[in-house]
Amino acid sequence: MTQDDDELDSLVRKRIRALRVAQGWSLEELAGRARLSQSTLSRIENGQRRLALDSLVTLARALGTTLDQLVETASDDVVIGPVIDSAHGMMRWPVKSDPGVTVVRQRMTEPPPDNPSRMRAHPGREWLVVLSGTAILMLGHRRFRIETNQAAEFPTMLPHAIGAEGGPCDILGIFDRDARRGHQRGDNERGASRPSL
Questions:
Q1: Helix, strand, coil percentages in the chain from 3-state DSSP, rounded to 5
Q2: Are residues 97 and 180 in the same domain?
């Protein structure tokens, strides 16, 4: 085994124990859920038993995670720098743990469109957090007022639009892969005439 292999082995064992403890489970409880003996699980956590693929798959499932997440290597890229999109007046942060998720910070200055035909609907899911000011979320025929430090989550298949109320507001938008694609298509079709989430 190389040093990298030893480090990954140790990391996986620590993750198994940490996930078990976070669930509030004893060795006995996780062993029962994973259909392993308590002594086998104890030896896996303590490094006294070889990590076998079949045991890792079973443990990952019992712990509510995936094998990939259980054995992924630690990344040196803890701090993520923004990608500046000056054409749309926003900064984006790609979320590395899920390449389909994008985080966007944007300053909204205009109210949302009052014309339902200007609302978007597309596959996906969005989350937004208001960092400062007050945002208005139009969702179908409903109007939601979102204050500083409040958040909203919604399926993007509902027609929606976001804007500011009573002055500028800064928001953090989080898009899954489908929602991001829907907005990119919308920007391209409109010629990216105004910044939007």
A1: 35, 25, 40
A2: yes
* Residues of the domain holding 141: 83-190
Q: Do residues 172 and 129 make contact, with C-beta atoms less than 8 angstroms apart? A: yes
> Do 170 and 106 meet the contact criterion of CB atoms below 8 Å apart?
yes
Check: CB of residue 130 under 8 Å from CB of residue 107. no
Task: List pLDDT tens digits, range 134-175.
Answer: 999 998 888 999 999 899 988 888 889 999 999 999 999 888
Q: pTM, whole model, 2 decimals?
A: 0.51
Q: How far apart are CA 48 and CA 58, in angstroms?
A: 18
Same domain, 89 and 181: yes
Let me know whether 91 and 156 are in one domain. Answer: yes
Do 101 and 171 lie in one domain? The reply is yes
